[in-house]
Design brief:
Elements (H helix, E strand, L loop, with lengths): L1 E6 L2 E4 L4 E9 L4 E9 L6 E7 L4 E3 L7 E5 L5 E6 L8 E11 L2 E6 L3 E6 L1
Parallel strand pairs: 2-11
Antiparallel strand pairs: 1-3, 3-8, 4-5, 4-9, 5-6, 7-8, 9-10, 9-11
């Protein structure tokens, strides 16, 4: 029971930067990781970046060195700094929260924010 709201998407040219933000609320004490996923045109949803409660990060190979994920403490928001954007980064970006409770793991998702990168 985590609510997520994304913001920061938009239209940019190749080589420019964007900063996405995700505001989280609800049962945050059970969250063990948060991250960003994306769905490009005609493509399956893929993990872009994630961060765990202890601060460890993981990135999609194609965005390593260009994107950076961070979280606020207390855990109320996560951010994705996207630099050197490429047309292939065009997608709807979704915020995700992975929670762990006695009943097992559960995923929460935001509504998504559109990122469009022109050549």
């Amino acid at each position: 029971q985590v609510q997520l709201v994304e913001s920061g998407g938009g239209l940019v040219r190749a080589g420019e930067s964007l900063r996405l933000s995700c505001a989280a609320s609800g049962r945050l004490f059970s969250v063990i990781a948060m991250g960003w996923y994306r769905e490009g045109p005609g493509k399956a949803r893929e993990m872009v970046a994630r961060v765990t409660r202890d601060g460890r990060t993981d990135y999609l190979d194609s965005v390593k060195g260009r994107f950076s994920i961070s979280k606020d403490n207390p855990w109320n928001s996560v951010h994705l700094e996207m630099n050197s954007l490429k047309p292939e980064d065009t997608a709807v970006y979704f915020c995700n929260a992975l929670s762990q409770s006695g009943s097992g793991p559960a995923d929460s998702w935001g509504q998504g924010t559109q990122v469009t990168v022109s050549s």
